[in-house]
User: Fold this.
Amino acid sequence: MIRLFRPACPKPKELAAGNYKVPENKKALKVSAHEKCMYCESKISHIDHAHVEHIKPKAHGKYPHLEYTWTNLGYSCAICNGKKHDKYDEKTPYIDPYSDDPEEHLTFHGWIVFPRNGSERGELTITDVALNRAELIEQRKDRIEGLLRAINACFRTQNQSLKEAALRSLAQEAASNKEYSLAVKFALRAQEVIT
Ligand SMILES: [Zn+2]
Assistant:
């Protein structure tokens, strides 16, 4: 999960009139999340697999006034959306990447995410959204292991300019639009590829 910036709502009237799935609005959420799930950072390849996420849940009429509120909407994969479902604790709210900096609450050791500095919000988010579910661990492990091999090769490169070019390109792998970028960022920092 990474910090995201919420754009203005393209179609506020339609949203207020009771349609939270207006295509223009969904598209704006998708772009703001770099076409990835706002929670697990998996690329959402097919639009049908993307859900308009209610940060405070709409299920069971818990927060009916927030069902059509732009600041309560996000873009998530079907699995994270389903895991979270109607859970929400006002006293320990899930990390909202549009208003919190996830890095203050989460830290990665390899491909596993842990709460940072004992953050209860971090821990509850990891548990309830299942951010260490088997499929995610496998995907992050593949990605990071591939990068570690590339880092090794890079550090062994004798030619300085080739080495620097390769390091710059590796550093780009932690960019916000890349899959599992927070896990990658921690891995690249641990290898001193980035600071
Ligand atoms: Zn997800």
About this structure: The beta strands are 50-54, 73-77, 106-109, 112-115. The chain has a mean pLDDT of 94.
